[in-house]
Structures are given as C-alpha cells and as structure tokens.
Amino acid sequence: MIRVLLVDDQPLIRSGFRALLDAEDDISVVGEAGDGDEGLALARRHLPDVVLVDIRMPVVDGIEATRRIAADPALERVHVVVLTNYGLDEYVFEALRAGAAGFLVKDILPEDFLHAVRVAARGDALLAPSITRKLIDRYVTHPPHTGAPALSELTAREREAVTLVAYGLSNGDIATRMSISPVTAKTHINRAMTKLHARDRAQLVVIAYEGGLVTPQRR
Description:
Layout: E1 2-7, H1 11-22, E2 27-33, H2 36-46, E3 50-54, H3 62-71, E4 79-84, H4 92-98, E5 102-105, H5 110-121, H6 129-141, H7 156-166, H8 171-178, H9 182-196, H10 201-210
Parallel strand pairs: 1-2, 1-3, 3-4, 4-5
Helix pairs in contact: 2-3, 3-4, 7-9, 7-10, 8-9, 9-10
C-alpha cells in the first residue's frame, strides 16, 4: 500500500486529491496538513511513502518543508513531490535543489496524477525528458549561485551517465548513447547518486550543473 501525505493550504484542493487517491486500491492518504510545519510533523509521525507539497503556503512554504524533510535521517525513504499552479515557475528549481523528487502541475489529468504518485513511491524522479530540458533552459537563464559539489569520486563512465541525465535522456537513451545495456546504465546512475549523496535523478540534474559537469556552451 502506498502511503501519501497531502500538504496544501487549500482544503478544497486537499479533499479533491484525497478523494482521487483513496479511490485506488493500492494508495491510502495517511494525513493532511495546511502548512509545511504541520506537514513535517505528520511526515515524522506517519512515515509516508510520498508527500505531496504545495510550493506556496503560509507559515512554512513547500520549499522549506521539502528541505527539512530531505535533511531528516528518519525520513530518508520519504519522497517529496511539489505541487504548483504555475508550471515551471521560479520556485520549482529551488524545490528540486531542496530535495524534491519532482513536481506536478495541479491541473494534471487524474490518470497522470495517479501514475505520478506511483512513480514517486518507487523512488523514481518525476522528470520526463521534456521537463528536464525545461529545467535546463531555466537554469541557463537564471543559474542559482551555490557551491559546486565534488564530482571527483565518479568514474569516467559515471560522469558520462550523469551528463546525459542532465541533458534529459532516459535510461534507454543513455544506454544507446554509451553502447551499454539499460541495466548497466541504471547501475552507473545509481552509483553516481550514492557517491554524490543525491536522493534521486532530479538531484543529479542539479548537481551536474552546479558542479560544472554540464554547461550551457556544451548544449
């Protein structure tokens, strides 16, 4: 059973998501919160598989809530998905840097929403290639100013795989580009995530840019 926590300051939004999720046999909503502070407390209490967090909320917003969840060792297996009304707005990249596994726009189709929750519960990032490319475009226009993470521990093949992740390629495309099997591609990516302490694929995209592994000039 996939356990989901809803964190949104709009009760109507929460009730709509709850009705949709609770109608599924393999999904259960374990709690609701109206701000990030309350959401963090409920996450610690219920240890959900997925936390759906609105970006813009009073008291503690979704970015800070995501950051606190990602930093809590007790919540290591909790996957945060941020929700936004505005598509790829100025806050989405910051939320991914804070530790979110991906993001969803609130006007998403119900079937796509349910699929996304299941994808997040498996530990996969909600970053389709098209979304990753938009993130890259956003980064190129407004790069965040942070310290670069160390990439020296990666092997040459791991660096190549991470670079291709940052360009928005799927595991299958990466395998083709590197002339390896999809399983081997996934292994390279997983090892890179472990070495870089990245929670998921979304974090790899951020690290690749902040570490200088990928630059706009190489596009």
